[in-house]
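Supplementary Data S3. Sequence and structure tokens for construct A.
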Amino acid sequence: MSASIEYSVIGDISFDSLEEVNAEIARISGDYEWYIEPAILIESSGSLTGASKLFRLFDEDGEELDPADESPKVMSDIKHLIDVLTDFSARKNISWELAIEGTPIGNLAGNGPDEILTQTLGEMATAFGGAFETEVEVPVQETKQKKPWWKFW
């Protein structure tokens, strides 16, 4: 089973319908083609949460995939997910806690990832080696340091 990145709103959020929330997330995401799973939110105890798998394990023919070959696509999905959640955060004035398989990796808000998440994502990118050599254009989101957050990777 593939690991997942999980994202949960910190605190409560008011919303009219879950369908409207997910439609807004899809609009923010635009025409980006997700490699694994798009950001989809569910309601949980008056708040919002979601999870997206990080890796495919097998191709369409059932052949096992090499994670090293998937890394650039996975990091592209993670970058886009961070941008989508940051944009949604700015619109709704909320913050998110992110985790991988239940282990917290940091928070983000409308101004981007916090220092802990930035460091964690940088470590992931280093471990994946060359993960940012993709052809996907990612809009600039600024952090407190006034640099695009992926420049810290």
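Construct B, processed identically:
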Amino acid sequence: MKIIDVPRHGAAALGDGLAVATHTVARWTRSSTAAGPPATGGARAHVEVLRRLGGHLTRAFLGGRFTADDGTETRFEVGVSGFDTLDHGDAPTFRGALVSRPLIIGLPADLAPGALAGLAGGPPLPPGTLTVDQAAFDLMYSSAPAFAQAGAALRAALGAAVAGADPESAVCAVVAGW
């Protein structure tokens, strides 16, 4: 995992998207936008974001893949867990790269709209599908806005990778904009 720290803005950890926080999907939430120039192939990545707001942290983790196609839209699919933030039961946890406090694997229904908003915003991606199949949250420090930031960072990383650009630079630009 590559750590990207932008002083006075926040940090992100960028990884190759291998199964770190795969969760059981109870339902999918979807959106689409007009596509940009076409590309071929696909990419996979995961991001963990951390933003420091005074003495408060916000955290979120998303992972997924982009698969290009020959359509006219970019589709976004976010896998939602079958629980809410305070109703996670005994969901498994893992330690993120940015803070030692464990993240709970899954994407609660109340946080999913933030993830979808972050994915669907920003400059056009090529025609294809961006699917989020990994997610994790912090019971105290995650929120829909934190997942919107993670969605924007994941979108930037995958968009850069598909375009043959540097995903790390793309994520750094997103974090610098916070």
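The two ends are 21 Å apart (CA to CA). The chain has a mean pLDDT of 93.
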